[in-house]
Specification:
Number of domains: 3
Radius of gyration: 28 Å
Strand content: under 5%
Order of helices and strands: HHHHHHHHHHHHHHHEEE
Number of strands: 3
Structural class: mainly alpha
Helix content: 55-70%
Shape: elongated
């Protein structure tokens, strides 16, 4: 019996079905090829090479501290646990019991009087032996890596700040210099480390020194040199931190499905966002670093304002993938660079008072004026900056940035 051949219509449907199936398979295959293709990352790496930026941590040439220094640091942190700062104790309202420029509470004096003097002496000796060269504890950093030295350094600085506040006049400079040495010793190879030194370590050190400024003018005015040496590398440290941040970002975005941003069932879509936007986000980060490397600290502040305005304007539109990733990885430029500049201004005005030289120009003031004075009873007690808005609010601590020098305004 002869089989009846399929009609032309049925044959046409079969051909159409095969075409559809083929297109689906090609789309799936193309999607997998696109998802796992590394061409966009190689383009970013080439851009980084042309700019002289590092691609891996070994390019940054981190040299971990030797065994002896690491042991000294471990000993310092162990001793620090035995002589905790009074500020580490919280009041019944959950807030710290003391802030610099408050009246010194009797409980704080009692707390320090009860500490073991031999432990304090050994801690001072260990800190002095550590020196002030950067203490590198990691040969690489990632977004998931813990950095216990952050909390350890903060605890030691708080204790030393209280030692400065409570010390006899002749000892104020000794403890002040130890705090500054701790700041110079703190390795800055990522953005979180840079922010830590500005928002916590240097800020606390300079606040403590300012609290005893009168004594230092009499007993150790040359500490001004140590202050200036400590704040001078801030811009270079930021640039190094951004290089480290780029290496971390490059590594985190290389594998979209393994990124920390994709953790959790609610972030199921993030691998596609990462794959779609990583080239644009990484390229934008490289461009920002390249621009900053051509500027000094003052110009960087102006640049940060323009950059933030541009990013904020872009966020008013559709949140495309690279912009989403920039929101996760790019720093808030105004906050990061602004904080660095405020710390520099605090240090420079302290040095000026110690050296009897004019106050520095306020980097936030568009008129180019120097820091302004706050007076009480005809006596200068503080300096202030017009802060980020560039408007003089007469030293209002809620609107301007105030640097107490001889009393709390």
């Amino acid at each position: 019996m002869t089989e009846t051949p399929p009609s032309p219509r049925r044959r046409g449907w079969r051909i159409l079905g095969l075409i559809v199936v083929g297109m689906v398979l090609l789309t799936i295959g193309g999607g997998f090829w696109w998802y796992y293709d590394d061409g966009d990352m190689e383009a970013v790496r080439e851009q980084a090479r042309q700019q002289g930026r590092p691609l891996v941590w070994s390019d940054l040439k981190l040299e971990k501290a030797g065994a002896e220094r690491r042991q000294l640091w471990q000993r310092a942190t162990d001793l620090g646990k035995q002589v905790s700062a009074f500020q580490s104790k919280l009041g019944p309202d959950g807030k710290r019991r003391y802030k610099v420029w408050d009246a010194i509470p009797d409980e704080m004096r009692a707390h320090h009087a009860a500490l073991d003097a031999t432990v304090i002496a050994e801690l001072a000796s260990v800190l002095d032996q550590l020196g002030d060269q950067p203490l590198v504890l990691h040969d690489q950093i990632s977004y998931s890596r813990l950095l216990p030295e952050i909390g350890q350094a903060r605890a030691l600085i708080r204790f030393m700040q209280e030692c400065v506040i409570l010390a006899e006049p002749i000892e104020v400079g000794v403890w002040g210099r130890r705090m500054l040495a701790m700041c110079r010793r703190y390795a800055v190879d990522s953005l979180i480390q840079h922010m830590m030194i500005n928002s916590s370590l240097l800020e606390a050190s300079l606040q403590g020194i300012a609290f005893r400024l009168e004594d230092l003018k009499q007993t150790d005015p040359t500490i001004a040199i140590a202050i200036l040496d400590t704040i001078r590398p801030q811009h270079d440290q930021l640039l190094r931190a951004l290089d480290g941040e780029f290496v971390m970002m490059l590594d985190a975005l290389a594998r979209p499905g393994s990124s920390h941003l994709a953790d959790g069932p609610d972030n199921w879509y993030m691998p596609m966002v990462i794959r779609s936007g990583r080239h644009g986000a990484l390229s934008a980060q490289l461009d920002a670093i390249q621009q900053l490397r051509q500027l000094d600290a003052g110009a960087a502040l102006t640049w940060s304002r323009a950059m933030e305005a541009r990013i904020n304007a872009a966020r008013q539109g559709i949140p495309y993938p690279s912009l989403i990733l920039q929101g996760f990885y790019m720093p808030a430029w105004g906050a990061v660079i602004g904080q660095s500049e405020r710390v520099r201004l605090r240090g420079r005005v302290l040095a000026a008072e110690l050296q009897g030289t004019p106050w520095p120009v306020d980097a936030f003031d568009p008129t180019g004026a120097t820091l302004r004075a706050i007076q009480r009873d005809g006596r200068v007690i503080a300096a202030y900056s017009v802060s980020t808005d560039g408007i003089d609010q007469n030293g209002d601590p809620k609107k301007d940035h105030v640097f107490p020098l001889y009393a709390k305004p």
